[in-house]
């Protein structure tokens, strides 16, 4: 099939590349001319494991190309994917200006039947709005609008796309349903379902899934906070709970809050959609409040250790991306930690394997950057860990201890074993577990 993907970010580029990998001809469109030039030059503009191999192969074999010109990209396409941003507007709702703007443009230029697929995360009722935007200029028999939310995880995006747990397709058109079924057939050969439903249910499925996962993490963060106050160990509680198959083991790891380009904005947008429909989501409201506090929950622990005053202290920070295996820093807890530390008069030297260039753009003046994880430690009063990159899991603790002024680690991701840290002579403060090695630090 000929496919156009409009918006070539994390979702659009993975979508386009993976569809090309199954033999389709894909043209990816973006308004960012620099990004398009970079991709034409054969460079992947984001860090996403395994994407580069597929990207290079499909360009070389002539199935994947890039342009800034919407009209030429969609001319021969049977399917047009919209993978456009839906950032939070001022009131927390998803801003649909990119999606509806492109729908408007498409209405003016389509001349034969196209399936127009909304892959962006959009509120209930958006397919109807996209339909209306197209219908202003295009005849109704020239298009169908389909909702096909994307569930990929950054860091696992290629695997998730090639072998999805399920594909959700919202459509009321039998013609569009057949096109979508044919397109996705190669991705579900192991028997995972393509679930067809109406457009509104498909749109809500994405928000419900993300809000549920954000709730699961947040619930565990609250259990961890409680563990700290009553002397329980959240690792043990987590294993004890997670082995119940009704609960499951995943998404139970506590830490310094969720971030990223999806959970914060999607949870907020669902709450706003609820308000608009006269329904107040109590759980969602609490999840947002708890996560807001959790992002800087490590700061009082650091302050307690240093007698309440961080002025003139210097910290090493390991991890900037909102999670490992991505360079995405949108709503990353590390950014909130940097802000809180610098506001308290401290300085920070950070290291992240992939996300430093992005952080330099937004926090360049507030933070120093190191060439590797050990250089970041030089002369620091303590190490803070904000992202659980595999690289940080088994450091040379002897070297870490020699480079730090004092052997103190504040771990927002629970990477290390308490007994081991105790044995190595560290003061080690983590989340939902007892502090080892020091009486000075309160786990507050
Ligand atoms: N990132 C994820 O993990 C993820 C997962 C599932 C769903 N989503 C959803 O997918 C959508 C896209 O997310 P993303 O992370 O890929 O965003 P992104 O910001 O990485 O990419 C969006 C791209 O669209 C381009 N763009 C903006 N206006 C355009 C226009 N008029 N024409 C062409 N291109 C235009 C931007 O230049 C950018 O390259 C959002 O709704 C998001 O919520 C994201």
Find the structural class using helix and strand composition: alpha/beta
Mean pLDDT: 96
DSSP helical segment count = 17
Largest sheet: 6 strands, parallel
Shape assignment: globular
Helix-residue proportion:
40-55%
Instruction: Tell me the strand percentage band.
Output: 5-15%
Low-confidence stretches: none
Bound molecules: nicotinamide-adenine-dinucleotide
CATH topology of the largest domain: Rossmann fold
Q: How does this model look, in words?
A:
With 444 residues, the chain is of the alpha/beta class. It folds into three domains: 195 residues, NAD(P)-binding Rossmann-like Domain (Rossmann fold, 3-Layer(aba) Sandwich), CATH 3.40.50; 88 residues, Orthogonal Bundle (N-(1-d-carboxylethyl)-l-norvaline Dehydrogenase, domain 2); 135 residues, Rossmann fold (3-Layer(aba) Sandwich), CATH 3.40.50. It contains 17 helices and 14 strands. The longest helix has 32 residues. The structure holds nicotinamide-adenine-dinucleotide.
